């Protein structure tokens, strides 16, 4: 399916008759001028993707018939990255790389040194950015998007669903280096600070709650670099372990 | 020296009387309004950095006296990344991350699928981008910048100075995964393709010349993501090995 255009169809809509509406249909029909009979790729962001043929096209509605549908197995190593909220213009870059580097989830949390306020819930623009990236890199999995307005208390509550939680801390106290292998061992949460880093109190609260301190090294990394490095180490370790999330071919 | 402004002073100018001219002096005096008596940080991009005091300021010339000068030891693991030339708007991002992630060098090579032409020599804007990044992240080492217009032949000639050369290849033939440790074992060159990847002939020519095929995994990574992941794996391995390039403190 290397050269096919990709479109997102939410999981609840994967049933006969397959149809695409809204912006995705407008993009398919109006912008890309897909013709009846053409083949396209649909994906649901939950590991399901399929080859479809366009059967009929109305102004804002495409009717499609499935040629082949596949469902990728959920990867065993699942990495969530929680980034301290920052006004950084690089937030979209982090979202894009989270999709490419196959993060299972990405959260933004309200830190003491955050500039501005984390929204109460994930913004539609985050999802849109992830969708664009997923179309380009053909990752059939979209990361779960999470907003954590509640500071370290919110983070600690969120952490309950994970087997291992790491605090990626630029401090001499973070003696363990982050291990790529650790970042793909089961359900893992890795937390990076906002621009300006964790406060000592925040770090202590997370350590007290059972987070393990890890370090990406002594260098002074920008916010998005720490995030992307963390995602990249996890990605590489999953690739090495063979926990490939892509369907064959 | 955490809060000091940083300025670049080329290695040949590190001698009494220390003075800064040109854009760096204008930035120091005109933009940042550094006053006589203030302290600043100078670095030469070759591991030397120092704390200086401003002694006198003319319109475009700053006279400085050294308070303390240190010279960082050259790291043992040295990674050069050669990226296939691309029109990507993300080239500046790759240069910035090369500085943050402490690459020893970054080259752009002319590949068959490159869009546009690699310039005959590194552009001043590349160096400028690296300088900006080095000031921000306080890496006292600037990566060497290299332009390789001569295709794989140019790359193979360039490769002679390295102990190990890797072809980061998204192919089933690249059975070895890229190992972070391999990327910091001595003088290492890692080559990534342009947007669109290596042609089979290019890959074969590099393999015939002794490059080893390595893979970053089966995912479809964008040009800059492959580059940054490669840089990040090398960075992490050097941090782990303790080949820290920063001076203490």
How many domains, in number, for the residues of chain A? 2
Helix content of chain A: 25-40%
The number of E-state strands of chain A comes to 11
**Assembly type:** homodimer
Task: Choose one word for the global shape of chain A.
Answer: elongated
Describe, in plain words, how this protein is organized in 3D.
Two copies of one chain form a homodimer. Chain A is α/β, with parallel strands linked by helices and 249 residues long. Chain A has two domains: 6-71, Ribosomal Protein L25, Chain P; 78-241, SPOUT methyltransferase, trefoil knot domain (Alpha/beta knot, 3-Layer(aba) Sandwich). Chain A has helices at residues 22-31, 91-100, 124-137, 151-158, 200-208, 223-241, and strands at 6-8, 18-21, 39-43, 48-58, 61-71, 78-84, 105-109, 144-148, 164-168, 187-192, 212-214. In chain A, the strands form two sheets. In chain A, strands 8-7-6-10-9-11 form a six-stranded parallel sheet, with helices on both faces. In chain A, strands 1-3-4-5-2 form a five-stranded mixed sheet. In chain A, helix 2 (91-100) links the parallel strand 6 and strand 7. In chain A, helix 2 packs across helix 3 and helix 2 (91-100) runs parallel beside helix 6. The longest helix of chain A is centred in the last third of the chain and has 19 residues, at 223-241.
């Amino acid at each position: 399916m290397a050269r096919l255009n990709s479109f997102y169809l939410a999981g609840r809509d994967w049933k006969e008759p397959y149809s695409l509406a809204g912006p995705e249909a407008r993009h398919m029909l109006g912008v890309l001028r897909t013709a009846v009979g053409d083949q396209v790729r649909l994906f649901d962001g939950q590991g399901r993707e399929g080859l479809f043929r366009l059967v009929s096209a109305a102004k804002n509605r495409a009717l499609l018939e499935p040629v082949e549908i596949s469902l990728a197995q959920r990867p065993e190593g699942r990495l969530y990255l929680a980034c301290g909220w920052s006004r950084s213009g690089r937030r979209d870059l982090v979202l894009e790389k989270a999709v490419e580097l196959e993060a299972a989830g990405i959260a933004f949390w309200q830190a003491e040194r955050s500039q501005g306020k984390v929204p109460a819930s994930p913004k539609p623009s985050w999802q849109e950015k992830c969708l664009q990236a997923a179309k380009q890199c053909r990752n059939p999995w979209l990361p779960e998007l999470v907003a954590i307005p509640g500071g370290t208390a919110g983070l600690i509550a969120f952490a309950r669903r994970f087997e291992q939680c790491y605090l990626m801390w630029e401090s001499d106290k973070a003696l363990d280096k982050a291990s790529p292998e650790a970042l793909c061992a089961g359900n893992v949460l890795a937390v990076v600070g906002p621009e300006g880093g964790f406060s000592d109190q925040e770090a202590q609260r997370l350590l007290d709650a059972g987070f393990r301190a890890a370090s990406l090294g002594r260098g002074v990394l920008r916010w998005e670099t720490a995030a992307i490095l963390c995602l990249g180490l996890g990605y590489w370790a999953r690739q090495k372990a063979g926990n490939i999330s892509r369907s064959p071919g």
